[in-house]
Amino acid sequence: MANFFEKLGDSISKGAATVNQKANDLMETNKLNQDIKAAQAQKDADIVKLGQLLYNFKKNPDSAEPDYDAVIADMDSIDEKIASLKKQLQDLRNEQICPNCGNAVAKGTAFCPHCGNKMPVPEVKPVNPCPSCGKENTPGDKFCQFCGTPLNQEAPAAAPTAEAPAAEAPVHMCPQCGTPYNEGDKFCQNCGQTL
Asked: What region holds the DZANK-type domain (predicted)?
């Protein structure tokens, strides 16, 4: 009975932590959106200021030419701030921007659902597979976190068996890019070609 209440308490704690994390993410999203809107409003005000300076100069050409560069530099600074805030928002939402159409796409998506463009492949972090259980460990670990086997050593050679080698499955190659694919695949995972 104590085990039941312990599991119940753990479930409630995990649920509360999840709700708390979602609430924090929502608050952070709202704050970033407000900061983006405020920066955009400042840029809009700078555009009006730049237009007013140009208008006044064109209306009175005998006056000294105004300093447009300061306003433009301020606008460039605001653009950088907006880009940084949007990047933070993308990271919070686990999204990336399609380089072709500019729409937000979930990270890990192979192709943009809006335009079909192939999405950039994220960098693959190096792994340290265990020779015994095959699970991934952090590079530099000396022992497997899962089974305790020493890492970075050659796995013991398997004893030869008297069994005949299994027949290899036929390899299918994409006609567009030459990437191997599994039987039953409808699209190439590399280039998107219909198979």
From this structure: 130-192
pLDDT digits (tens, 9 = 90+) for 96-145: 889 999 898 998 889 999 999 999 886 666 678 888 888 887 777 888 88
Residue 95's DSSP bridge partners are: 106
Number of domains the chain is built from: 2
Q: Within this chain, do residues 8 and 51 fall inside the same structural domain, yes or no? A: yes
User: How far, in Å, CA of 92 to CA of 32, rounded?
Assistant: 10
**Within-domain flag for 56:** yes
Q: Are strands 136-137 and 128-129 parallel, antiparallel or unpaired?
A: antiparallel
Low-confidence stretches of the chain (pLDDT < 70) are 122-126, 153-170
Q: How far apart are CA 109 and CA 113, in angstroms?
A: 9
Taking CA atoms, 171 is separated from 168, 174, 179, in Å, by 8, 10, 10
6 and 91 share one domain: yes
Q: What are 110's two structure tokens?
A: 């192979």
